[in-house]
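Raw record, unedited: Integron
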Amino acid sequence: MNAALALAMALAWAAGPAMPDLPVRIGGAAELDACGSLARVARLKRGGENFLSVRARPSPRARELDRLGPGRLVWICDAAMDGAWTGIVYAPAAGDADCGVGSPVPHRRAYAGTCASGWVASRFLEGVAG
């Protein structure tokens, strides 16, 4: 076996099985907004990476979907059981896009609107409203 193939196999084994995506869920109450809170990206590392990775599931090993800069506004819609990860919905470009989460959705479901969604480390979000 050549060295390149052996290295590729070792890296694949070390990475473990691929983790499936976990969609962000919205809604669940007929009288409340689909996503109840608005937050901003905050407390990023100074002098280091100045972005927050949006992941496909609540895990630092999950596939990175996007990177959000400081001050970016996001809707808080879902949470992982341990509270360390938050499921968010956000406009594709910074600004005030209507993501369709400010009105009630009576039954819990995966977000399927026009905006982006994913999972971020909760410690980098600061509540703004809700």
